[in-house]
Amino acid sequence: MLFRNIIFSALLVGIIAGVVFSVIQQFQVSDIIYAAEKFESSTEQESHQHTPSGSGTMSDNHHDEEAWAPEDGAERIFYTVVANILSGIGYAIVLLSLMNLVSMYKKTPVSLLQGIVWGVAGYLSVFIAPSFGLHPEIPGMQAAALEARQIWWVFTVISSATGLGLLFYLTGAKKLFAVFFLLIPHLIGAPAITGSPFKQMDPEVVLQLTELHHQFLIATGVVNGIFWLLLGALSAWVLQKWSSQSLNNH
Q: 60: part of which helix (H) or strand (E)?
């Protein structure tokens, strides 16, 4: 029964949060991405025009041309919404499970304010902490190997979430354990490239992409903050519904 409640509740929370996130993202973030993609496309065309035939890049170009990607417009928006909803459902499962576990341990229902605090903790763990080492990227930016970044990101999220939990529940000198978990990913350091992320680009283009990147950092920070606050609040609301139904049944 508990597992079924968590799954169905996560579906509801994830769909609502994912759709709201997608709508805000479409108006606040997508235009920045589209603008950066135009610069990226023009830069790639120029590099192809200046690439000598037989230089060994033909297989890479052929691979890029055959790589599937959704068409701009409705198809791209649809897949973005689906991805956001799936992310929302996954995060909601984790939030609901942890919030319900703490609620059962303390034998007190989760309040809306507590749900928002959980959402803030999720935002800090999943978005803010990894962003200190791996800034959100726009098209055209060069970065370290994807696998290395993914491993560091997962490690940072788990370590940060653990650190925040220990910081909240431990007392006195024991909080030093929390500080250790919060700092260790950044002491290790995120995978990075040397030099500018906008290599082999015209200086004027670099300036415009840098400005777009700054706008992107702010926009994604705000949108993800709203997403996590909504996830926390909706999860608390669902758990309150569970509690009221349980009392009515008894």
A: helix 58-66
Cβ atoms 153, 191 nearer than 8 A: no
Which residue matches tokens 């702010």?
218
Each residue's pLDDT tens digit, 46-73: 544 444 434 333 334 434 444 566 777 7
**The pair of three-digit structure tokens given for residue 168, joined into one six-digit string:** 């909240």
- Residue 144 half-sphere exposure toward CB, CA atoms < 13 A: 17
Q: What distance in Å separates the CA atoms of residue 113 and residue 12, rounded to the nearest whole number?
A: 20
Which of 220, 211, 195 minimizes the C-alpha distance to 131? 220
> Which residue is it, tokens 């049944």?
249
Q: Alpha-carbon distance 108 to 5, whole Å? A: 18
pTM listed for this prediction? 0.84
Q: In degrees rounded to 5, what are phi and psi of residue 64?
A: -65, -40
Tell me the backbone φ, ψ of residue 171, rounded to 5 degrees: -125, 160
User: Under a CB-based contact definition with an 8 Å cutoff, are residues 223 and 28 in contact?
Assistant: yes
The distance from CA 33 to its chain's CA centroid, rounded to whole angstroms, is 16
Report how many helices (DSSP H) and strands (DSSP E) the chain contains, helices first: 9, 0
Contact 115, 237 (CB under 8 A): yes
CA atoms lying within 13 Å on the CB side of residue 226:
16
